[in-house]
Amino acid sequence: MHATLRIIRDEHSSLSAVLRSIGLLISESRRHGLAPDFRVLRAMLFYIDEFPEKVHHTKETALLFPKIRARSAEAAAAIARLDADHARSHRAVLDLQHDLLALEMMSEAADAPERRARFEKEMQAYIAAYLDHIRVEEVEILPLAERVLTTADWAELDAEFMRNRDPLTHREGDDAFRPLFKRILMTLPAPLGLGPAFEALQKSYPDGEPARSFWTSTSGEAAERGTKTVP
Ligand SMILES: [Fe+2]
Ligand SMILES: [Fe+2]
Questions:
Q1: 229 - beta bridge partners?
Q2: Average pLDDT score over residue span 62-78
């Protein structure tokens, strides 16, 4: 498989895991009558803002999609929709981060329950739209790229994509984001999953660093989970 396709699929896998985990955290905290875990939600939204929105989308829009468009008009409408999603979704995640902060800061306000319901609805809509975006790329766009791009196209793309990988699936280098993912993995309740992300993290430690300890950590942060009341 071309490095570009492997990198995009790896990044989709990490991102899907984080998105699904956010949805589960929200629905489970509501089901148990608890406040959402602001600390871990903040970390996951920051991740989505920091890497997939700023780097993953940029690579697709600036590098991959123009090459496909130059070789085929077959998926022009789908690519236009995906580009439009990319243009919109960074603003959307910034708004969600702000709404989450407002929810946390204004937890005593009279309108906190409505605020929380609105945030949850918008967050779940964002997650569903994002997962559908990934599905279209994987089902329509990547197979089309495999059919129409030339060897020279792939060589150019592979060189560019190898330059900047998702920190969650990066095998070497780019240590800047690693503490953030340790934080996410430490604070996320294990039964909720993040399995693909965990596997990706394990792959990122080829020298055998004991990544599993992140799941079993009993840090102070983890101990704080689920102790707040519903706003
Ligand atoms: Fe995309
Ligand atoms: Fe993508």
A1: 34
A2: 95
CA of 56 to the centre of ligand 2 (A): 6
Gap from CA of 81 to ligand 1 centroid (Å): 10
In the predicted model, is pLDDT for residue 220 greater than 70?
no
Backbone φ and ψ for 109, nearest 5 degrees, come out as -70, 155
Q: Dihedral sign for Cα 73, 135, 138, 52, please.
A: positive
Question: What is the spatial distance between Cα 8 and Cα 130, in angstroms, rounded to a whole number?
Answer: 14
Predicted local confidence at residue 31, as pLDDT: 87
Residues in the chain, total: 231
Characterise 217 by phi-psi region: left (phi > 0), alpha (psi -120 to 50), beta (else). beta
CB–CB of 52/89 below 8 Å?
A: no
For the chain, what percent of residues have pLDDT higher than 90? Answer: 42
- For residue 170, give the nearest of 11, 5, 4 by alpha carbon: 11
